[in-house]
Amino acid sequence: MNAGESTDTVAVRVPGKINLELLVGPLREDGYHELSTIFQAVSVYDRVTVRPADEWSVHVIGPYADRVPTDGSNIALVAAKALGRRRPRHVPHDPVRIDIEKTIPVAGGMAGGSADAAATLLACRELWAMDHVDNETLAQIAAGIGSDVPFLLSGGTAIGSGRGEHITPVLGRGELHWVLWAGEGLALSTPNVYAECDRLRAESGAEPPVPQPSEELMTALRRMDPDDVGPALRNDLQDAAVSLEPLLAEVMRTGVELGARAALVSGSGPTVAFLTGSQAEAIDLSVGLAANGPAGDIVRAVGPVPGAQVVQHVRTPPSPPPTPPRSSPPLGPVTG
Ligand SMILES: C[C@@](CO)(OP(=O)(O)O)[C@H](O)COP(=O)(O)OP(=O)(O)OC[C@H]1O[C@@H](n2ccc(N)nc2=O)[C@H](O)[C@@H]1O
Ligand SMILES: Nc1ncnc2c1ncn2[C@@H]1O[C@H](COP(=O)(O)OP(=O)(O)O)[C@@H](O)[C@H]1O
């Protein structure tokens, strides 16, 4: 950082997501699967802060911090550099320091890394005053970083098509009350779960059709009535996640026995999302799971919530350049 540059700090709050529907179509030639998914952003948040620095770095705190890389593979750093490359040529490509307060479970199927990437894009656009990058362009940059990243910019409830990066908002009223179970020390790698899904399909000889959002869920989401939403939830990656982590079947069974309206693996897992009918039901279920379920973190959340949002911009005026030493006369005795 050079003298005369601002030391502004921008903080962004970003939610995690669950997939209310994840329909996995055929494997494409580029190695991705054609998807039709319905994302919902839920009230479990990371906070990402960026500030100018002498070199690129990322620092993570929070209960899952030790599971997040802090080298160049951190997807938040990848996002900052990708946006930095869009700065006009005459503007120096300034490094930033990124601080992540991590609450979204890591490698849990809640897109925590993608959330941090989306938050970093928004924070750096603000920090670098890149007004020429509109939301559509930001979403395109986001898609280049990961399939889930564009959704975390917009949040709410939305259809994801293509490989999940094309986002269409779903309008609906009301909110859903979720209980999330994240198994202690459990993690599933997204590519491994997709590969397991392909393996199971090859075994059964099932050819997936090109996926389309289901009418049943789209209708249920208009009023977000848990009685209608519950039976319409579906995740094509669930069998693959359970095949790699059989404990998930027991977790889902226990939650339903304890009164959940429905249970499903979130995305590629291993977080399990339980749908309840109200805040009171969610409290009862989380207490029951904590007492009777397999060990794990249990969190209540509501959805939908908005995507990444700037929550703080501390503007610090540029420090004045150091004044050159003056050739002043030697100090003599002070006379009155
Ligand atoms: C499964 C989902 C459901 O929302 O998320 P998670 O539950 O893991 O958070 C997503 O499809 C994950 O999206 P994201 O984590 O952004 O994946 P990417 O970085 O784009 O891709 C990682 C890898 O996942 C596989 N992949 C991803 C998306 C897709 N439509 N088909 C795939 O086969 C590919 O093997 C790819 O190399
Ligand atoms: N900022 C980040 N937060 C979490 N994980 C990250 C981050 N950057 C890179 N990763 C890597 O991405 C992997 C997937 O993380 P995450 O996005 O939390 O899971 P998922 O893809 O299941 O939603 C982690 O195991 C970790 O190695």
UniProtKB/TrEMBL annotation:
Substrates-to-products reaction catalysed: 4-CDP-2-C-methyl-D-erythritol + ATP = 4-CDP-2-C-methyl-D-erythritol 2-phosphate + ADP + H(+)
Recorded GO MF terms: 4-(cytidine 5'-diphospho)-2-C-methyl-D-erythritol kinase activity; ATP binding
Domain (GHMP kinase N-terminal): residue spans on this chain: 74-156
Coiled-coil region(s): none
Positions of region (Disordered): 311-336
Pathway: Isoprenoid biosynthesis; isopentenyl diphosphate biosynthesis via DXP pathway; isopentenyl diphosphate from 1-deoxy-D-xylulose 5-phosphate: step 3/6
PANTHER family referenced in this protein's UniProt entry, alphabetically: 4-DIPHOSPHOCYTIDYL-2-C-METHYL-D-ERYTHRITOL KINASE, CHLOROPLASTIC
NCBIfam families given in the database record: ispE, PRK03188.1
Protein name: 4-diphosphocytidyl-2-C-methyl-D-erythritol kinase
Annotated source species: Ornithinimicrobium humiphilum
Primary gene name: ispE
